[in-house]
Amino acid sequence: MHTKRSLTGDRPTGRLHLGHYIGSLQNRLELQKKGYDQFVMIADVQALSAQAEHPEKVRENILELALDYLAAGIDPKKTTIFIQSLVPEIAELTVYFLNLVTVLRLGQNPTVKTEMVEKGFTKTVPAGFFMHPVNQAADILAFRSDVVPVGEDQLPMIEQTNEIADKFNRIYKKTFKKVAPLLSKTPRLPGIDGKAKMGKSLGNAIFLADSGKEIREKVQKMYTDPKHIHVSDPGRVEGNTVFTYLDAFDPDVKEVQRLKKQYQEGGLGDVALKKRLAEILESTIRPIREKRQKLAKNPKAVMRILEKGTEHARTEAAKTMHVVRKAMKIDYL
Ligand code: TRP
């Protein structure tokens, strides 16, 4: 088969928000449209590595995440959606990859370093969490992916995946291709408070399932230019969250340019600007929310989609393991 492969995933730790939408969902929809052989993974193993004592939280978010995917337009007829822990070939590949990475190198992975600080893991990091870049390399390479649509924060993961693939190819046999990240046009969507990252735990996220009222309230709270007090005052566009969002979501680029000019010169109030943004976000989110509500009425059908996807994913990962075992000379019997 000559079609290109893509794999990406999310941890089932909560609902997806606009940061996910801009960061990678949009690109997944694009790849799906282009006919890529796409795999989307619910990374429950990775989620458990940070909260082993709360399996119920991971479990309840499996369905939520699947609903978000389907509602956002991931089509199970074109994209394989699957559950990571039910493809044990990934765990197997992780173990072999662990031999190709030093503990020192793992400790230098910027994504892990940042997450360790965020989670208060500096002195108490579980080994499973510490090594999750290796697990992530196994996710990607088990499916011999060509591209990985991710947010900017995941770039060190792709880099480490390629290092592992190179080392495997060198030591054993040329088996894996180089994988390329696919970044979104908007590198990172800030939270409504203007902070660099939108996150559920940071309390600054707009979710794909938010109601019209929630969207309006959150946009009203959005960080703009604190010095822009009167409508007639000139305001700042750089670092103004409302404009960052308009750049990401408003299809009328020319009008946004005009609004920016007017805001900078003075004469455009935050209230009018936020009203426009709230309407645009509502028109993006409304169809997703409505589709989600419909799908949520039949959780069994959604679980059935995951079951079929997982079955297919397992077959594909098993093909890779066959090649891997041969390359490693452990195909004894
Ligand atoms: N670490 C990713 C995140 O937190 C999720 C993930 C797990 C992933 N395995 C992956 C993303 C493989 C891309 C490819 O968002």
TrEMBL record:
May I ask which residue range the UniProt record assigns to the signal sequence?
none
Which GO annotations describe the biological process of this protein? tryptophanyl-tRNA aminoacylation
- Listed GO cellular component terms? cytosol
Record keywords, A-Z: Aminoacyl-tRNA synthetase, ATP-binding, Ligase, Nucleotide-binding, Protein biosynthesis
Q: Name one GO molecular function term.
A: tryptophan-tRNA ligase activity
Q: Which reaction does it catalyse?
A: tRNA(Trp) + L-tryptophan + ATP = L-tryptophyl-tRNA(Trp) + AMP + diphosphate + H(+)
The UniProt record lists the EC number as 6.1.1.2
Family annotation (Pfam families)? tRNA-synt_1b (PF00579)
Transmembrane ranges, per UniProt, are none
- Describe the family membership recorded for this protein in Swiss-Prot or TrEMBL: Belongs to the class-I aminoacyl-tRNA synthetase family.
What is the official name of this protein in its record? Tryptophan--tRNA ligase
**What is this organism's lineage?**
Bacteria, Candidatus Wolfeibacteriota
